[in-house]
UniProtKB/TrEMBL annotation:
Subcellular location: Nucleus
Coiled coil: 84-189, 244-281, 326-533
Keywords, comma-separated and alphabetical: Cell cycle, Cell division, Coiled coil, Mitosis, Nucleus
Transmembrane regions listed in the UniProt entry: none
GO biological-process terms attached to the record: attachment of mitotic spindle microtubules to kinetochore; cell division; mitotic spindle assembly checkpoint signaling
UniProt cross-references to InterPro entries, sorted A to Z: Mad1
Stated name of the protein: Spindle assembly checkpoint component MAD1
Main location: nucleus
Organism: Torulaspora globosa
Pfam families: MAD
GO cellular component: kinetochore; mitotic spindle; nuclear envelope
UniProt family annotation: Belongs to the MAD1 family.
Amino acid sequence: MSNSGGSSPFLESPLRASSKLEQTVDKDRKLMSLQYKLNSVQNEFEIERLRLQQQYNSVDKKYRVKVEELEKALSDTTFLYETNSRLEQELKELKVQLDECVNQRDQVIQDLSRKLHVKEQSSVDRLSDLESKLSEREHVIDRLKIEVQSSQSLVKRYDEEIAKQANEIKQLRKANTEKDDEIASLRASRVIMAHHNYSTEELQELTVVNKMFKDQVQYTKELEEVNLQQASELKKLRISSESQQFWKSENAKLQNRLEQMDQMERQIQDLQLENLNLKSQLASWDIYNNGKDKPEDIIREIKLAKESLLVLTDENEKFRLDNGNLKILNDELALERNQLLDLSKKYEASIINYKKLNHEIEQQKQLAFEECKLLRKQLDEFAAFNEESKEDSNARDPNRLKDLETIVDSYKNQTEDLTEELRKLNDQLLAQEPSLKKRKMSDQLGLNYSQRLNELQLNNVKILRELQNSQNNNKILQEKLQKLSDLKEKSIRILQLRDNPLLKDQFIKRKQLQLLKKENEDLLQELTNEKGTSIERIPRSIYESLSFELKQRDDDLLKAGKKFNRLKEMFNKKSLEFIDVVNSLLGFKLEFQQEGKVKIFSAFKPDRYLTADLNQNTLKSNLTADLDDWDDLLHTWVEDRGQIPCFLATLTLRLWEISNKNQIDKNT
């Protein structure tokens, strides 16, 4: 193959007659080498052709399998597209149902608010009635209390009078019995002395006794009348006591009702708070409320929506699984399609190589034809030369020429066979070009289908997102409905972020940089304009820069002042907390003064204090009048032992004992 593109050795000038034998030997050798090359090329061509045929068959088989799989994937894609459209329709229906559910729920909320308003009005009316009844019963109770008090005092007075009169009745009965005895004795004496004359004195005594007897009888009658009157009054008092017991029971009942009224008032307050919460929550729902549905309709629609949501979630999970499988299949098909495209590219490259090889073989064939013509021409010349030199070459072998002619004929036949095979191969390639075009078209169709499949997958993802959003909205609405039903108010605190110090610092630095640049430019301009003259004025940019720095200094001073005030307030607050803690735990109130002095007030003796000078280590106090052993305590705990906390603790105990003793004395 290396000599296929070069010039043929037969194109050289013919040899001279003296060297024809050597040329014949060289030609034989070259002819044999050419025949060997032709055989090797033919064998390589056959091997390559068989290998390409096998590759073509395997690629064709794989291609058909992939086309079938692609058709299946396309059928699955159409099914997925149909189900996707059906899901879109169901999603629209669900959105409509969700809007209807929201409207129905708003109607239920309106009805509930209306009922709540009616109940609130009825409760207010009932409360007013109960308050009026309560006021009446309170007046009745007050009047009855007054009557009971008066009746109790009257009963007490009557009891005293009855006891007094009973004692008098007993005495009168005793006197009456005595008088009866006297009367009986007098009657007996009168009977005995019937026949005797009575003296005037005795008659007077009898008249006096008779008169006294009549007076006693009259007094007893009056006492009986008074007794009857007191019995009737006592009966009235018993009736009034029974009525008093009745009114006491009524009072107890009214007290129970009053307690119930307190509970009802608390319930009414709770209901009013709930009503306010409902009104505040209904104010936000009135925007979306049309007032058409009933509570049972909303509950039924919510149940149906939940059931349909469960069904749709199950179908969504199934479609997700199918979509995942389709994605995996699509990825596999895309990989196989890419592999097929690579194989197709390799196949086209091999076809191009075959065409190049065919072209080279055609060129070799033409060269071989030309060489055969030249060989024939040289053979004719060689035959003519042999005829001329028969006399000189009688000893040569005559079969040599015949062998050469047979070799040339076989070479010609082989080249003709080779050209025939090449022609057939070209015909096969030309016949395979429409199928390649069809395969290219099918590849393009598969590419279009894969693009359509990707678009459908993206659309499916978008629909799934919309479905997820609708589910989230439904969940949020259900949570809001649950919150409305629970009537739990939650306070929302909005935190507002203050200005960013980093951005503010960057703004200040940027402003300073701009002012400095402008200042430098103005100074350079002044220097360039006034060379050799003294500068008696400054540019405006320097003034602006200095004023900006002054403004920044003022802002820094203002911030420092605010920070100082804030720290001062914090220090005062913490110091007050410290003083309160010391006062509550140790029983002393501290008051810090200038020049390192501290006043210590005891909680049990606020008008007395200790003054400690921390700079000069002195301790003064006005507690010497209250504590007799002040000097001993000071000497023991401070001078000898150096324990001021123990000294203060001892003072606290002594002052507590003194205050406790004073409190006991006041109570006694």
